[in-house]
Amino acid sequence: MRLHGAETSVADIDVLTSARDAAQLLDAWQGAVTIGGASDRFRSHPFARLDGAALPVEVMANLEVRTADVWRRVVPATRVAVAGVFVPARDELAAILRAFGRDKDVARAALLERSVARSARC
């Protein structure tokens, strides 16, 4: 969100990846690694929190979200380079956040959509 210009605080960095790439990242990480479990709404294989950088990094391999009693894989269809990092396009990121369905994610989607509207006016 921050990379797309949304004015929000950043508590951690979320990385969506494949299980293979997550394993390589975890093996190479020099700081602390905490493996987490699934929730009733989200699961990934694995979910890991990496500490030891300026911000914690949360690695989610093959992330799935549960909507209407069905697990759906989160696979961004777009890929935009922003500040040397690939992220989903703004509108897709907002749609992903809305699919997550939590109040905080819906609020973040609205914030991201407002930042799109501001950019269009400039």
Describe the fold and architecture.
The protein is α+β, with helices and mostly antiparallel strands and 122 residues long. It has a single domain, classed as Beta Polymerase, domain 2. 33% of the residues lie in helices and 28% in strands. It has helices at residues 19-28, 90-100, 103-121, and strands at 13-17, 33-36, 42-43, 47-50, 57-61, 64-67, 70-73, 80-82, 85-87. The strands form 3 sheets. Strands 1-5-4-2 form a 4-stranded mixed sheet, with helices on one face. Helix 2 (90-100) runs antiparallel to helix 3. The radius of gyration is 15 Å and the shape is globular.
List the helices and strands and how they pair.
Layout: E1 13-17, H1 19-28, E2 33-36, E3 42-43, E4 47-50, E5 57-61, E6 64-67, E7 70-73, E8 80-82, E9 85-87, H2 90-100, H3 103-121
Parallel strand pairs: 1-5
Antiparallel strand pairs: 2-4, 3-6, 4-5, 6-7, 8-9
Helix pairs in contact: 2-3
> How many individual helices?
3
Please indicate the percent range of residues in DSSP E strands (runs of 2 or more). 25-35%
Low-pLDDT runs of 5+ residues are none
Helical content, roughly?
25-40%
* Class by SSE composition: alpha+beta
Q: What is the CATH level 1 assignment?
A: Alpha Beta
Placed side by side, the strands forming the largest sheet appear as 1-5-4-2
End-to-end distance: 19 Å
Number of discrete domains = 1
Brief overview:
33% of the residues lie in helices and 28% in strands. With 122 residues, it is α+β, with helices and mostly antiparallel strands. It has a single domain (2-121), classed as Beta Polymerase, domain 2.
